Structures are given as C-alpha cells and as structure tokens.
C-alpha cells in the first residue's frame, strides 16, 4: 500500500507541476500580448493627435509617460494579478 501511495503522490505532484508550468506560460503570453497591444494602441493614438498637442509638451515626457504606464501594467501582471488569481 505504501508503494501505491508513493506512486500516486508522485503522479499528483507531476500533474500539478505540469499545470503550473502551462499556466505560467499562458499567463506570460497573455501579459505580453496585452502589453504589445497597449503599446500599439498608444502609438496609433499618438499618430492621430494634432501637432499642437506635441508643441505644448516635450516628446521625452510623452514617451516616458507611455512607457511608465505600460511598465506598471507589466509589474502588475507579473506579480499582483497572478497572486490574486492563485488565491
């Protein structure tokens, strides 16, 4: 009986590890796709803005703001959202 229990425990552990691995891969792919889409949407929106918008602001400030927003989303998706889902 102990052998059967040990084998069963191993298969349960292997199955759990496989599902955790697949979950992490799928989650990272989703997070990267969201970030890519957000960057693309922000770029397309910036292309449609009038020149007066860019004259009133520095280009470095605009790029830094867009990058910072996407980076904050990345930090949330890497840690916070994953932890909330697993709880």
Automatic annotation (TrEMBL):
Top-rank taxon: Bacteria
| Major localization listed first in the record, in broad terms | membrane
Q: Which InterPro entries match?
A: ABC1_TM_dom (IPR011527), ABC1_TM_sf (IPR036640)
List the Pfam families.
ABC_membrane (PF00664)
Report the SUPFAM superfamilies cross-referenced here: ABC transporter transmembrane region (SSF90123)
Q: Name one GO cellular component term.
A: plasma membrane
- Stretch forming the signal peptide: none
Q: How does it sit in the membrane?
A: Multi-pass membrane protein
Q: Where in the cell is it found?
A: Cell membrane
Domain ABC transmembrane type-1, residue spans: 1-87
**Which keywords has UniProt assigned to this entry?**
Membrane, Transmembrane, Transmembrane helix
Q: Which GO terms describe its molecular function?
A: ABC-type transporter activity; ATP binding
Q: What is this protein called?
A: ABC transporter
Organism name: Marinobacter adhaerens
Q: What is the lineage of its organism?
A: Bacteria, Pseudomonadati, Pseudomonadota, Gammaproteobacteria, Pseudomonadales
């Amino acid at each position: 009986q102990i052998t059967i229990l040990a084998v069963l425990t191993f298969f349960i552990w292997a199955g759990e590890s496989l599902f955790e691995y697949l979950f992490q891969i799928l989650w990272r792919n989703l997070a990267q796709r969201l970030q890519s889409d957000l960057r693309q949407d922000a770029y397309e929106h910036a292309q449609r803005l009038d020149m007066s918008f860019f004259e009133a602001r520095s280009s470095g400030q605009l790029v830094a703001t867009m990058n910072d927003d996407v980076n904050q989303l990345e930090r949330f998706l890497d840690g916070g959202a994953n932890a909330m889902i697993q709880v």
